[in-house]
Amino acid sequence: QAHRATLADGKEVIVKIQYPEVAMLYEVDFDNLELFTRWFFPENANTISALRRRHLTELDFRNEARHLQECHRNMAARGFEPRHVRIPRIPDAQLCTQHVLAMEFLDGVSMASA
């Protein structure tokens, strides 16, 4: 879930919230996927296990905050940000936890609408 909010200093942000059941549902889904794969496509079992480990990091929004900051630095270093693309900034790292992420609100046209 993502919600628009205003910080005490007046900055508009998007607050992304992960519900508690998300991690449990993730585990159940991957348990089922691994079981199905072992039964019908055992040659792919290692790939599914690797995917599970890789996507597990996506459940921690602190990782997403670090990725946004890295993406911003990389795009800015190459002259793309902010001329051609905008990457939301993290206004305060203290507003980012494992289950909550606050990022800059960017007004504009979505890529889907462009």
What is the topology?
Blueprint: E1 2-6, E2 12-17, H1 21-40, H2 45-56, H3 61-77, E3 100-104
Antiparallel strand pairs: 1-2, 2-3
Question: Could you describe the 3D structure shown?
Answer:
The structure is a single chain. The chain contains three helices and three strands. The chain is of the alpha+beta class. The chain has a three-stranded antiparallel β-sheet. Strand 1 and strand 2 form a beta hairpin. Helix 1 runs antiparallel to helix 2. The longest helix is centred in the N-terminal third of the chain and has 20 residues. The relative contact order is 0.18.
What topology, given as strand order, has the largest sheet?
1-2-3
Strand percentage, roughly? 5-15%
**Stretches with pLDDT under 50, minimum 5 residues:** none
Q: Over the alpha carbons, how many angstroms does the gyration radius reach?
A: 18 Å
From the spread of the alpha carbons, the general shape counts as: globular
| Gap from first CA to last CA | 24 Å
**Helical content, roughly?**
40-55%
Structural class: alpha+beta
> Total helix count?
3
Number of strands: 3
Main sheet summary = 3 strands, antiparallel
Q: Output the helix-strand order.
A: EEHHHE
Question: Average pLDDT value?
Answer: 92
